[in-house]
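User: Teach me something about this protein's shape.
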Amino acid sequence: MAYTVLFICTGNICRSPMAEGLFRDYAKKNSSDFVVKSAGVGAQNGLSPSENSVQAMSDIGIDITEQNSQIVTAGLVKEANIIIGMTQGHVDMVNLMFPEATEKTFILGEFDQSIPLHEREIADPIGGSYEVYSLCRDQIKEGIVSLLNSINQNNSMASGQSNQATVEIVFGSDHGGYELKEILLGYLADKGINCSDFGCNSDDRTDYPDFAQRVAETITEKEGKLGILICTTGIGMSIAANKVSGARAALVTDEATAISARQHNNANIICLGSNSTDEDTAKLIVDQFIQTQFESGGRHEKRVNKIEPSTKDKLKLSKVDSKIFQVINDETKRQQENIELIASENFTSPAVMFVQGSTLTNKYAEGYPGKRWYGGCEHVDIAEELAIERAKKLFGAEHANVQPHSGSGANMAVYFSMLQPGDKILTMDLSHGGHLTHGNKANFSGRFYEVVHYGVKEESELIDYDNLAKVAAEEKPNMITVGASAYPRSIDFERMGQIARDVGALLLADIAHIAGLVATGLHSSPVKYADFVTTTTHKTLRGPRGGLILCGEEHAKKIDSQTFPGIQGGPLMHVIAAKAVCFKEALQPDFKLYQSQVVANAKALSSGLINNGFRLVSGGTDNHLMLVDVGSRDMTGKECQTALDEAGITVNKNTIPFETRSPFQASGIRIGTPAVSSRGMKEIEMAEIADMISEVLLDLKNIDKRNLVRQRVQQLTARFPLPY
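Assistant: First, the predicted structure itself:
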């Protein structure tokens, strides 16, 4: 059976094709039984290798012109015996997309231990001179020589047999255990015992949990019989390995403990400390570990069964519902690989995600803390009370209702508590930046109430407060709404409050988009000017998807009764608890730094787009978003959204003030910076993103340009992993 090597880079048109050609040339010259392939994590199928790559290989007598690009797939990963990436980013991306490939994915440079760690990645030569490509080729060639030496040292590999299927002993060590590991590997090789070495490959400093996890997972997945882990004390390795469900890792110090670990505890991994175990003792320990059998039956088996993985651990989604498991994996991959610029989207913290998946999802709790319709609410009451108190503190409000399932539901509760069907509301027009629940005809708010819209000035595209006051005086609305989903400038809540009071109207401030900025003082707060404040808890707040209502004590009873039982049944206690976590995170000093970066990034991105010739609605931004007028360049928002999505940049089409197209085509695209800021990107990355957006949109029909931009997107996102 042939041994399959898969080389990975980004676009599969430069580095990995050269690696494939070099390795295939070796196999041909040495009559070796290898299958060699290459692919890219961000590749477009069917592209020819770059001109300079072809020339660089031709100069050493190797033809790669027939090697067309392909995207890395599950099939390619499955059939590969070893996967070689050009950079750590490629390895991380493959492991993210295909977790099953972790144990067989490496960086090409790591096979040459003479190369310093910081020099082991092979940089992308794309866009460089021919000399850059030649240097890249030579670096790859050196790496392949080391790779071949490593493969040929393992007889199972050289014979074309999959190491994973036949391995008996799996080794792993950090730098402290490297020397002893190498001794034991040689010792067992001399005995004819098939071993697999998961690293490390030198005494350069490494992190022991990485190797402990790989070995433990290999053993628990039955791809190896027994595992041996070595670090300086053995303690760290044993703790880390036992974090993997099904692993039974024992710290052993002599023959007696090795025998006991197997005989009485059915250990499937032993951990050695290199500073307390000499070479001869280590060999005796390994011999006993391999030879000793578990004393099955009786008290030992009964005790071991008590530490076996629970039913909960065994119930893996991949087995319960493989299709949904795949959906989640695919979406995680999309989020990791793409630049997320939808203004209403963000990445939550791991803590928020953990709470949403907790046992709280099982609890029904109709009513409010201390006044539930069901029993057994003593614990979820605490969660909701914490969420309420934290929300009040965060926004300086007298009363908070944390039960709305969404921002739309929060607005509905306010409308239904204070208005009668047919009452008049004065709201911001959707095409001028408003929201569906601000009286759009397709929404309940436009069907139940008489709606009068206000908007922005045509010349400045800023809210026309003077005209708004005039309209309010003429129309005498029962309620005025203020807030927007696509308005890039600061809102004067104080002026809005005065206008509402002058005509005897209630004021509802919907701050769903800017809540994070309001909470940290980077945007003025409407709390002291508005009768009601509503928001979502995601978007700039970085919490779970849900809603929140703030108001004064005089309206608390009406708001609460209209939320439940008025428009909702049982509250989602897991989401409410996640809101509590979100509010606590938002109360920390670091959260203001994050929000400041969101604003700074938005200004940097808007400046980059303006410098590249695009017109922005209102000329820029004061908050987290911007609205790009693509209609002025004879493009639709829809086609721009599609082209950018194909390049790995996610935005949404959006109408602009005084829109002339249908909302399904639109003349604008909306761009926001919360999600990219959550990944750690800053102003320098925003300039790069502005250039990538411009390259796609200024040559909208050029598919090759999109593909090249997608490669750059992949390189950028690989540097900024998701926060979970």
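Now, about its shape. The CA atoms of residues 165 and 223 lie 6 Å apart. DSSP finds 30 helices and 24 strands in the chain. If you'd like, I can walk through any region in more detail.
User: That's plenty for now, thanks!
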